[in-house]
Specification:
By secondary structure, the protein is an alpha/beta fold. Helices cover 35% and strands 21% of the residues. The protein folds into three domains: 222 residues, Aldolase class I (TIM Barrel); 114 residues, Rossmann fold (3-Layer(aba) Sandwich); 123 residues, 3-Layer(aba) Sandwich (Rossmann fold). The strands form three sheets. Strands 7-6-5-4-3-2-1-8 form an eight-stranded parallel sheet. It has a six-stranded mixed sheet with strand order 10-9-11-13-14-12, with helices on both faces. It has a six-stranded parallel sheet with strand order 17-16-15-18-19-20, with helices on both faces. β19, α16 and β20 form a beta-alpha-beta unit. α10 crosses α18, α13 packs across α14 and α13 crosses α17. The two termini are 52 Å apart.
Length: 509
């Protein structure tokens, strides 16, 4: 283990003053900080920052100096000699460790390294930004020559299987840090902190490698500094997944109830790759979003009867090694959202879409006694869904001549980032209420069109929170802190600027 704190804040900027500002933020969250000298735009800025570094030496902080050359994926364009001199100055200024890439070591006599950097502890590193090396043992063998205090292998992983392979290799060796890079590997990167030699880099502001999670997110959203072997693991699978606010909602709820659990986003293109990693990563349950809500069903060992009728699952519990059981809580979200606004029995409701989300909406409405109409881009799927709920399929061209008590958008049209799109035009909104299941942005183009016509609207935020609270209660068997979860989503939308759609002039209701 390099240091006491497994989370290493990364300070990287083009100016010394910006580096100092980031450094002041970093030490509030962790006692381990990497200073990326190679990001500074000139030799003058490097000297200026290193000269100021000494005033932090009295703090109980472990500093790691890095001045990575462009040849190794860094930004430093100077000579090897100058690179080593900068690292030597950083050590004299109070850095305990220095990170030196294998590309420099191959070109540098060991005697020179000892003469210049002998007072520091060496972290010898190899970076593979495009792939995972085929033989990790050979990489480690080369890195260990010269007996450094620790070695690091950072590699891009295209699958969880590759990320797990890298993590397992590190777990079998002492003083080996494994860093899986890329969005697919992000959950494995965070969960690696459970291990004795777990280590994670978290940028204060500027990411220095693909798949990094910011220091603020890692410490506040994921509470990663508290992860241990007893931490229960949950997540959401989808493609894309970076837009999901489920981590913000569920992690805030776990914190509110003081539950030792974490909820992570899994970018899943290959379902089999994810499912093969469920036991390895110790996953206790997961949410399912596009495009996997229907496909996941063939991998389940059991399913709630209503979810089976719907033909789509958005919630899975792990009931033992390799045993998955599915539920659909979207229908709960639909009913809880609409029951106070529409007299559902005998109402006539139009559902836009025929995918997994639309199926949950249609079955929920049918169960509540509504007359369900379905309109979708694919006519065959619209007819099939309408038939499954004893409803009616309506072609898009005929909508202007119809009237509904409510219109529900269950398609992704209008979702971030394509927020200017709407599944219907204003003249097609002949109804008393418009409900858009999209929650990002809070006020979609469809809702805006409806409001201009004086039609009551409901955003997808309510459905999102209600279905999420049902998931949370299935997993924890406790009462969900609904107000906390709702506020977490509102806060996240406000931070990213999608609480109100770009170009919109009115506040969401």
């Amino acid at each position: 283990m390099l240091v006491d704190d497994k989370i290493c804040a990364v300070v990287a900027a083009s100016k010394a003053s910006e580096m100092q500002r980031q450094l002041s933020q970093a030490v509030r969250h962790t006692h381990t900080v990497e200073v990326r000298l190679d990001w500074l735009r000139s030799e003058v800025e490097i000297d200026r920052f290193v000269g100021q570094l000494g005033r932090h030496a009295a703090r109980p902080v472990t500093f790691i100096a890095t001045c990575r050359r462009t040849k190794a994926g860094g930004r430093y364009r100077g000579s090897i000699g100058k690179q080593l001199l900068h690292l030597a100055e950083a050590i004299r200024a109070g850095c305990t460790w220095y990170d030196l890439e294998i590309e420099t070591i191959r070109e540098c006599p060991p005697e020179l390294l000892e003469a210049l950097l002998g007072d520091g502890r060496q972290l010898r590193s190899a970076h593979y930004f495009r792939h995972l090396p085929g033989n990790l043992s050979l990489v480690a063998q080369e890195l260990k020559r010269g007996d450094p205090q620790a070695i690091k292998i950072a590699a891009h992983c295209d699958s969880l299987a590759e990320a797990n392979k890298l993590a397992e290799f590190a777990s079998r060796h002492r003083n080996v840090i494994a860093i899986p890079m890329g969005e697919v590997a992000l959950p494995a990167r965070i969960l690696a902190l459970r291990a004795k030699n777990g280590f994670a880099y978290a940028p204060v502001e500027n990411a220095t490698a693909a798949g990094q999670t910011s220091l603020a997110e890692l410490s506040k959203l994921y509470r990663a500094d508290r992860i241990n072997r007893q931490t229960r693991v949950y997540g959401v699978i989808g493609n894309p997944i970076s837009h999901s606010l489920s981590p913000a909602m569920h992690n805030r709820a776990f914190a509110a109830r003081r539950i030792n659990a974490i909820y992570l986003p899994f970018l899943v293109g290959d379902l089999r790759d994810f499912l093969d990693s469920v036991d390895r990563l110790g996953i206790d349950g997961f949410s399912v979003t596009l495009p996997h809500k229907e496909t996941i069903m063939k991998y389940l060992d059991g399913c709630d009867p209503l979810a089976a009728r719907i033909g789509a699952v958005n919630t899975v519990t792990v009931r033992g090694p390799g045993h998955l059981y599915g539920y659909n809580t979207d229908y709960v979200g639909v009913l809880r959202t609409l029951e106070r606004r529409v007299r559902l029995p005998a109402s006539r409701v139009l559902v836009l879409g025929a995918g997994g989300a639309a199926r949950a909406v249609a079955f929920a409405l049918a169960q509540a006694g509504s007359r369900v109409c379905v309109s979708a881009r694919r006519w065959d799927k619209a007819k099939a869904l309408a038939g499954a709920v004893d409803g009616e399929a309506i072609e898009r061209a005929k909508l202007r001549g119809e009237f509904f008590d409510a219109i529900i958008n269950a398609t992704p049209v209008g979702m971030y980032p394509a927020m200017e799109n709407s599944p219907l035009e204003a003249r097609e909104l002949n109804c008393r209420l418009v409900f858009d299941t999209i929650y990002r942005p809070h006020r979609t183009r469809l809702i805006e069109l409806a409001q201009r016509r004086g039609i009551e609207t409901v955003s997808g935020l309510e459905m999102f929170v209600w279905q999420g609270s049902a998931q949370w209660e299935i997993w924890t068997r406790g009462r969900a802190p609904i107000r906390v979860m709702r506020q977490a989503v509102i806060d996240a939308l406000a931070r990213e600027g999608t609480l109100v759609r770009k170009g919109s002039t009115r506040n969401p209701r």
